[in-house]
Amino acid sequence: MPDGRHPKLSHKHHSKTNMQTVLEQWRSQIHFAAQQETALTIRGSGSKDFYGEAVPEHSLLDTRAYHGVVAYDPAELVLTVRCGTPLKEVEAVLAEKNQMLPFEPPHFGEHATIGGCVAAGLSGPRRAFAGAVKDFVLGAKLMNGKGEWLNFGGQVMKNVAGYDVSRLLAGSMGTLGIIGEISFKVLPRSVAEASVRFELDEAAARRQMNEWMGQPLPLSASFWHKGLLTVRLNGAQAGVDAALARIGGERLADTAAAEFWLAVREQTLPEFALTEGRRLWRISLPDTAPSLDLGSMPLVEWGGAQRWYLTDAAAKDIREKAAALGGHATLFRGAVAADESVFHPLPHAVLAIQQRLKQAFDPHHVFNPRRLYREI
């Protein structure tokens, strides 16, 4: 295609002129909000609305009209896409070339967009073994709080001159600007995949994963719950076969394994469901750290580095226990009290840096104010 768009999606896209019209509409909304001293809620499909600080509903800036694949070079493993493009469409385009987004992003909704994926900065089961969202962002185009269209990074890994702003946008929750376009490093899908399961208690599962992660095994996911450790292997057929022979375990049928990892990624397992009086906490810890006493058994991912707790424990107690082990805690789902914060409180010096970043990119505080931290 002359404009670099993927042919399979071209009929779904507006013309380049219409895309420019969308940018002008955004710019008008930004200028009006700044003049009126009001704010804008940046939103794609709203699939991640539950995540982050709850803020009053401001005027909506909908990103979905700005969509489509800008460029895709399978040979160079680089994809550039507009923010409003549905995540499932991005994954479908990559699947045609037997490629993927390596960080296995959760959707949390049928219509999730790629811009929301980056803004939320959430990664799936593969994150501990492949990398996080930010590790695969090569570049981005951003509209800032002055309505300026800024270009950061590029389309190759070595293009890192200056500050790496494009990666800074991952997890920024739309507080710095509208992430208009993103360039990703993508990877080929593995030739072979297998999942195996072991009956182990939590401590034994963490010890076993810690041992395996120090060995040359083609691990791509791990999850422990209800006395069962499930491990996924990806790679060349010979490598996966050799790993299966080495670690043993009960192999899951391919269909059952795919359904299981999808349920882990999308948090549709019953163990993730909120119950009365309990909230879902995501706690990041060193993978060798012992279990926290929070009145419930955790769900353990990433070899022990990410743990989920459904608990009624107080935020202060949870964060003190996590910090004592070198970790931090995020209130992922559930009501937030007035004296609590969703994300682990930042040291004063780090918070000051965040505030200066906000001021530099969004001087009129137009974009998603207080969505990340209430002080920003």
TrEMBL record:
Name of this chain's protein: Glycolate oxidase, FAD binding subunit
Keywords of this entry: FAD, Flavoprotein, Oxidoreductase
Native species: Neisseria shayeganii 871
Domain FAD-binding PCMH-type: 3-189
MF GO annotations: (S)-2-hydroxy-acid oxidase activity; FAD binding
First-tier enzyme category under EC: oxidoreductase
Gene name per UniProt: glcE
Documented EC number(s): 1.1.3.15
Regions that span the bilayer: none
